[in-house]
Design brief:
Layout lengths: L1 H23 L3 E3 L10 E5 L6 H8 L4 E6 L6 H9 L3 E3 L7 H11 L3 E4 L7 H4 L7 H9 L2 E8 L9 E4 L17 H17 L3 H8 L1
Parallel strand pairs: 1-7, 2-5, 2-6, 3-4, 3-5
Antiparallel strand pairs: 6-7
Helix pairs in contact: 1-2, 4-6, 6-7
């Protein structure tokens, strides 16, 4: 009964969020055809505002469990959304690997997980251009593909916000954790380059080519 309630809730809430984003933030989505229709996928994008997670969740076309900081559960709205969308909460600044275990369990079941390798909003700026390697580590452990996402725009009302979905990356074809202890870090550098490149894509030029 709970699963049915959540599924119905996701359909209704996703419609409301998507409508709101399209009207208020002029949400534009590019490259959605790059999202695999089945199999384990980790969605990874750059992180600027609280708009980013719901925008990805309602446009990706696949149900995903998003990793979010534990503190968000104190907010009634985010707590409710976390319940409906099966959120995975991360205890930051702690050696708790429960969230990672749950995420890997989800991926091994062929499902999807969403996360921000930056670790926090505008993390690349705060962390001297570095990303956390958790996403790539999980991808290598579970053979999940990673779909990079570049989020463009000022994230202000009535200013265009664009999500650019890149082609899925299968790092397991290139790196092996058993043979290379730095495999996750190397893959993370490639993922960072892919995400940054998508944030700089000329969306208007892409639209012209599609016409």
């Amino acid at each position: 009964m709970k699963k049915i309630f959540k599924k119905i809730g996701r359909v209704i809430i996703s419609f409301c969020i998507l409508t709101y984003c399209k009207i208020v933030y002029r949400l534009n989505v590019i490259g959605i055809e790059n999202v695999p229709e089945d199999g384990a996928v980790i969605f990874c994008g750059n992180h600027r505002t609280y708009l980013d997670p719901p925008a990805i969740v309602v446009t990706a076309g696949r149900h995903m469990r998003f990793l979010a900081k534990e503190e968000l559960r104190k907010n009634p709205l985010f707590a409710f959304l976390g319940f409906v969308y099966d959120g995975i909460y991360v205890k930051r600044d702690a050696k708790d690997i429960t969230a990672m275990k749950e995420a890997m369990k989800t991926l091994k079941a062929g499902e999807c997980v969403g996360m921000f390798p930056e670790g926090t909003r505008n993390g690349l700026e705060k962390n001297d251009g570095k990303m956390k390697s958790g996403a790539c580590y999980m991808a290598l452990k579970t053979n999940a593909k990673i779909v990079p996402i570049g989020i463009q725009g000022e994230a202000k009302p009535f200013k265009r916000t664009t999500l650019v979905y890149g082609e899925p990356i299968d790092f397991s074809e290139k790196y092996d954790l058993k043979e290379d202890k730095d495999a996750a870090e190397k893959a993370t550098e490639e993922l960072k380059d892919a995400i940054v490149a998508l944030t700089k894509v000329d969306v208007d030029e892409l639209k012209k080519k599609d016409k």
